[in-house]
Amino acid sequence: MSAPRPVKLPAAVAERIRHHCEEQYPCEACGAIFGRGDGTESPWLVTGVAHAPNDHDDDHRRRYLVPPEFQLHAEQEARAAGLDVLGYYHSHPDHPARPSEYDRAHAWLGYLYVICAVAEGRAAAMNAFTLAEPDGAFVDVVIEGDAVAWRGPAEV
């Protein structure tokens, strides 16, 4: 796979993600990312997000699961607005904004993943990733736009 195209993430949308991640601390927050683009032929352009319930039946502090009925509803909502579900975001409470092995094992090819570190209840670094190939490693996706002007605390 060639390097993925960047993601254009408006500051207002990035702030919604950060706020949701802080609200859910010390548990992992998660949600869908709406927009256009495919990350290969055209950059991802994020237009909004929808907060999802964390439906993981084990440890909400270390794992997340977006419920299938939420995914279906998000797809329907995106389609009605002429958009796509580009991917999903989630938080890493008191851990770096880097994908875990669990994240990689549950990721889908072609989707954008945004991870927001939350250190002691405050949103910190936010990074974006996509899978390089099925069952492959994550690769970094450059975040462009006015969201990068936000300089939160360093990685946890």
Itemize the secondary structure elements and their pairings.
Blueprint lengths: L6 E2 L2 H14 L5 E7 L7 E9 L15 H13 L3 E10 L7 H5 L6 E8 L2 E10 L6 E4 L1 E2 L12
Parallel strand pairs: 1-3, 1-8, 4-5
Antiparallel strand pairs: 2-3, 2-4, 5-6, 6-7
Roughly what is the average pLDDT, rounded to an integer?
Answer: 91
Write the H/E string, N to C: EHEEHEHEEEE
Structural class: alpha/beta
Percentage beta strand? 25-35%
- The low-confidence parts are 149-156
Q: What is the radius of gyration? A: 14 Å
Q: What is the count of structural domains?
A: 1
CATH A-level architecture: 3-Layer(aba) Sandwich
Which fold does the CATH topology refer to?
A: Cytidine Deaminase, domain 2
Broad CATH class: Alpha Beta
Number of helical segments with 4 or more residues: 3
Biggest β-sheet strands, sense, barrel: 8 strands, mixed
In what order do the strands lie side by side in the largest sheet?
A: 7-6-5-4-2-3-1-8
Distance N to C terminus: 30 Å
Q: What share of the residues lie within helices?
A: 10-25%
Determine the CATH superfamily.
Cytidine Deaminase, domain 2
Number of β-strand runs: 8
What do you see in this structure?
This protein has about 160 residues and is of the alpha/beta class. It has a single domain (about 5-150), classed as Cytidine Deaminase, domain 2 (3-Layer(aba) Sandwich). The protein has three helices and eight strands; from the N terminus they run E-H-E-E-H-E-H-E-E-E-E. It has an eight-stranded mixed sheet with strand order 7-6-5-4-2-3-1-8.
